[in-house]
Amino acid sequence: MNNMSANLPDFAYPTRYTSLSSLAAKYVSDRLLATASLLYTQTSEHVRSGTAADNRHRLSPYSSLTFQPFEAIDFRLRAFYKNIFRLPTFNDLYYSRVGKRDLKPEDTHQFNIGFTYSTSAGERLPLLTMTTDAYFNKINNKIVAYPNRNIFEWSMMNFGSVEICGVDIALESAFALSSKVKLLAGSSFTFQDSRNKSNPGSPAYNHQLPYTPRFSGSGRAVVETPWLNAAYTLLWSGTRYTSAQNMPENRLSGYADHGISLSKSVEIKHNRIGLSVEALNLGNKNYEIVRNFPMPGRSFRGTISINF
């Protein structure tokens, strides 16, 4: 059971009862893992004020396969299919001036293939892992937030149909620079083509979804020593569009956010004390994640934590 309350006039005070039932099977051998499941979800909505959202019930199948082709090499192929639906949250449905009680659940068909490869090269390179996934998602009634009358008033809506093709690539590594100094490094890259497929006659048909970059990624590097840890982080995003139509006037530039930090952890009388200082947004760029809401420029932060 879930419920929500607020001190707002005429608030709905919704309550949702949810029942989940699952049937699952698994096959395991030395180099093969196969799983399948069927999930039944049933919900019942109740409100004190106004009209409740519709009750829902749904069967959601899932199947996956993981295979290790070579016994001596840690290389694994995987694939899965999943058909799921996502219920609108209470905020999506009932929050004043934002929620819409007639929102439909998202219905998603997910197809994914990928691989993971892990290796090491002695004491100097104890870990090197690469993970790659390619996927296709077909989403009906995708739930999105969009500016309503102005940028300060947002509302929820269903996109009738969305198709998403994407690739995720991640690298993780560890290097032993000496017996006491270690370098941990990682990076990720995402390509995501998210297209509005709702209405072929619409000007926004086949356009990229609002605020969804085609290219994005991150990176990090941490030097661990017995005396001090130093870290560098990078978060970047490509061009996005602020509206359903991908016109030049709706284009929002990409950004890159760099940060560095120093941290130290000490133990005093069985208590672990952590100290850290950070420099955020080193480039001092007031980039925008949402149009007309620039992020702060360069800033500094100090943190003290105590674990008893």
Structural notes for this entry:
It contains one helix and 18 strands. With 308 residues, it is an all-beta fold. The chain has a domain of 204 residues: Beta Barrel (Maltoporin, Chain A), CATH 2.40.170. Strand 6 and strand 7 form a beta hairpin. The protein is globular. The two termini are 34 Å apart.
Proportion of beta-strand residues: over 45%
Tell me which CATH architecture of the domain at 104-307 applies here.
Beta Barrel
CATH class of the domain at 104-307: Mainly Beta
Query: Which sheet architecture does the biggest sheet show?
Result: 14 strands, antiparallel
CATH-assigned fold name of the domain at 104-307: Maltoporin, Chain A
Number of helices: 1
Please compute the radius of gyration using only Cα atoms. 24 Å
Low-confidence stretches: none
Average pLDDT rating: 92
**CATH homologous superfamily caption of the domain at 104-307:** TonB-dependent receptor, beta-barrel domain
Indicate the structural class. Answer: mainly beta
Could you tell me how far the N terminus lies from the C terminus, measured between alpha carbons in angstroms?
Answer: 34 Å
Strand order of the largest sheet: 1-2-3-4-5-6-7-8-9-10-11-14-15-18
User: What sequence of helices (H) and strands (E) makes up the elements?
Assistant: EEEEEHEEEEEEEEEEEEE
